[in-house]
Write a structure and sequence with these properties.
alpha+beta, 2 domains, 12 helices, 23% helix
Amino acid sequence: MKKSLLILSLVVVGGALGARVYQAIEPHPQLAYGPNGLSSLRYRGWQLLAYGDLRVSHVVMRDGAGNTSPGSLESTLESDPPAGRVLRKFAWGEVEARYTPRAGRLNLAVTVRNRSANTILEASYEPLGLRFPARVAEYDGSIPLMGHNVGDPTIISMTWPAGKAVLVNEDVVRPLLAGFPWSLDRPANATFPLRISIGRDPMLPDMLPYIDRPIPPGASDTYELSLRFGAPDANSAKLADDVLKDFAARFPPRLKWKDRRPVGTVFLSTTGLNLPKNPRGWLLDKSLDVTTKAGREEFRRRILQLADSTVAILRGMNAQGAITWDIEGQEFPAASYAGDPRLFDRLAPEMAGVADEYFRRIRDAGFRVGVCVRPQQIVFDQSQHASEREVADPGRLLEDKIRWAHDRWGATLFFVDSNGGPSRPLDAGVLEKVAAAFPDVLLVPEHKNVRYFAFSAPYFSLRDGLVSTPAVIRSVYPNAFSFVNTADGPIEKHREELSSAVKQGDVLLYRSWYADPANAEVRSLY
């Protein structure tokens, strides 16, 4: 038996076909039922079940007048072993869980039937709890292991020294919160509820997206998941290979960008200096005065000189272009990277007549021009101080900003700043439409999910320990690539990984507004 397991582990590591072979010859999970539902889940001799009584812990209903109230949690439980199902009945309807063993996996289908006159807005279900043979490697003791299926296929690994279970949402389109939110036996961290939720789960962090999947009166909904088993070193993406392929088919790759040479970054200003004569913080220079004619002439001379020196650095790096983050300056902390090139001369009057020439020099030297844009609108208060405001149609706003910079400056590289947050980026469909409107433009979004890689080259920072496009992304989109900012990052420490990233098509960002000594290290990677 041990020898067989070792051979199978080697097969898994070998490739996608190996993963399928492993699953094909794996045994079926063995299930047993009792009066309180599923009573046993055995796999390769391990008892993996903590409980199987199909728990429902949270229900919120909305009536026809729009009022919300908790749904009753009083219920009765029925177990039907021949059908492989457990049924829990409530005053408002019923929840059914079906458990179907397959080779190397257990399929789970949870169906909710709303028999009331109200809409089910929120609900949390636990079709079972799992007790793994030992501590789970992926759980750090606090951060929930949850997937929401919004732009990301849900694939959650739970690994112990002798095996691995991977929770997969079989549906790659409809949103659903599913996973292992917490340990029930800390600090052992081996026992977890398998929890699925719609709406907002009050037991989970607010940073997770709201799952808008209501169940109207008289309607039903089914959530289909699976637990897939493998060796501890099995590749989770390969165990879920069919789902990743389904995701790529539903959201096909549309990005065509052949140039993978490095790209320079340019920051012309800073915020927080509080300089009355240089309020936009240009060139980090406390002596610069843009309030006088002579000072503005000096400002023009130095900005255009910086454009020329940037061109020289771009040539030396064999770059494809440069992105300028702050052509509007950084006067207002509430809008430090304004991300609206249309307003550059209102936010920074001294840039009038300068910005056009600045970008022309870079463009005429044969390099791509890039700027920063944001899906928020700049607004001014009575004192003409600027801040950012969310808008109803961020896609339309981004299109307007990009079209303006594209037509005026020939810009084709756009860093998309503040597109949501790390755990909740802007709906990928919004940016996908923006990308489709400009086939000669490359979007570099700050925040991202898997779907973003179908149409853009998302941003990573080496300083944060992010070196290249994750392997799971390439499992979905083999030609996907990222922009990796090397500034202030430990290049030498990650030289081998960065070299591999470049060979696979990732683009490295580096400083090009001055001769950073680290640029030689970046160049050597190409």
